[in-house]
Amino acid sequence: MILIINCGSSSLKYQLYTPDLAKVLASGIVAKIGEPEGYAEHFVGRRGERRHSETANHHDAFGVMMEALLSPEYGVLECPGAITAIGHRVVHGGAIFFGSVLVDDCVIQALHDCAHFAPLHNPANIVGIEEARRAFPGAPNVAVFDTAFHQTVPPKAHLYALPFELSTAHGIRRYGFHGTSCRYVSQTAAELLNRPIEALSMVVCHLGNGVTLDAIDGGKSVDTTIGFGTFSGVAMGTRAGDFDPAIIFHLVKELGMSLDQVEEICYRKSGLLGLSGLSNDMREICTAAEKGNTRCQLALEVFTYQIRKTIGAYAAAMGGIDALVFTAGIGENSAEIRARICADIGFLGIEIDPRLNAAARGGDPNISAAGARVATLVVPTDEERMIAIDTVALTRPGVAAMQEESPRLAAE
């Protein structure tokens, strides 16, 4: 069986597949790690349970997952030895990893070397891998990188206008994020439209607590919002998005803040949370805005304006747009946010049908208005399946032998 582990900044998601990936045997999440209101969900088929689970860290969350998978009551594993391979989402591969790789000690060290690029995510990703290596000592582990899909972004889009040597010597450039999701969703969108992906120019809006907009031309990422770290681009749940770097100098020099304090602000106290003063949860913000909370109304306006503006920029960068695709928690579930984003961009050919938009979850993925020149789709992401596909491909005997000789073969 193939186990897929996706350690986020405050969650651990997992899926257990049959070896041929034909069926998901079990799935679950340990959510709100480090928070008193933490919980765990575990599903086997349509049967599931949710319970309070206050976990201090990702080590504890891994233990909760193992307990669920091995439970005599609702587990699906007789013993850890039934796992034949484990795939992991890794957020940032820096300039080292250009594709998915089998994990060994050298890869683990390289992951630690990349950890500073994504301080909210990479440490959690590493914990998941190290725990899996201990729990399943006979099974290979595969790391699948969010940054890999964006390695096709050309220099004109990924370079910053800083001294060139900083980029070449220190890897300071735009790397991108949510690449595994964007790869899966763009392929699925092309299938839904029954058109070759090579003939499509699309913008994928991965809207969750983390947000990525990706310009995908001919199946390749050509520009993306998140850059060197993971807080740039548009405003996110707790992350600031783009702002003038002079603000950092001001906070340090004029307000006496330390760089650690500034980093805390940029990653954990900004975005929707900072604007609304209420929450980073879009559902809570929408509810409060509807009741007249002016800061929540402002947070919605900033969020949707920045996304709408970026869609226009990416359409210009690609010389046109054939499809706009919404995915991830907010993108898939919030008809209000989709409607706000699509308002006033009819000049691009983007028009949605309000009825189809309201019924998109579980309904027709194509929410375009009749006669719209651009297809607007709602496509549920499935990062775990994309990771599983790479895991199976890399653990085939012949591939595994090559990787043992050169564990970074896919990255070179």
Describe the overall structure.
It is a single chain. The protein is an alpha/beta fold. The chain has 2 domains: 175 residues, ATPase, nucleotide binding domain (Nucleotidyltransferase, domain 5); 184 residues, Nucleotidyltransferase, domain 5 (2-Layer Sandwich). Strands 5-4-3-2-1-6-8-7 form an 8-stranded mixed sheet, sandwiched between helices. Strands 11-10-9-12-13 form a 5-stranded mixed sheet, sandwiched between helices. A hairpin with a 3-residue loop joins β1 and β2. The C terminus is likely disordered.
Strand content: 15-25%
Rg from alpha-carbon coordinates: 21 Å
| Number of contiguous helices | 16
* Helix/strand order, N-terminal first: EEEEEHEEHHEHHHEEEHHHHHEHHHEHH
Largest sheet: 8 strands, mixed
CATH class of the largest domain: Alpha Beta
User: Span from first to last CA?
Assistant: 29 Å
Which class best fits the helix and strand makeup?
alpha/beta
Indicate the low-confidence ranges by residue numbers.
399-412
CATH names the topology of the largest domain as Nucleotidyltransferase, domain 5
Number of strands: 13
- Average pLDDT value? 90
Helix content: 25-40%
Overall outline = globular
Which architecture of the largest domain would the CATH scheme give at its second level? Answer: 2-Layer Sandwich
CATH homology group of the largest domain: ATPase, nucleotide binding domain
What is the strand arrangement across the widest sheet?
Answer: 5-4-3-2-1-6-8-7
Instruction: Write down the domain tally.
Output: 2
